[in-house]
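Table 4 source record.
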Amino acid sequence: MGMAKKRVHRPEGYRPLPPPEQRQKARPKQPGPAARRPDNRDLRTRFEDTSAQLLLRMQSLPVFLVPAILGVLLFLGLVLNPAWSGLLLIVIALFLLWLTAVSWPSIGTGSRVLRLVVDFAILGLGVLKLLDRLP
């Protein structure tokens, strides 16, 4: 009986880096009209750097904890009175939108659409509950 090879989970869209000799060197930026406005890459880098600290903290938690907390918040968001339930659902939606934004470059189009539909559905449900339009 041989040792089974350990399977490594890789998120959808994950591509390992090519060896250093095959990587393309970064091209210098050309000055022009785009130089006057903030670069989207700079904004994305700042967003990822800011999010990295929270992601590292979440990664150090037990694996079941974050989904369990979200499950409890979702359950409470569906059964409490409208004001509290709306706030809880909005918190869940904002957390899921943040995770979607962090993972945006590495997921495919189908996953992007599905995540946005789920995120905005929960956000809409939370707003409707907050406005007391749903029981």
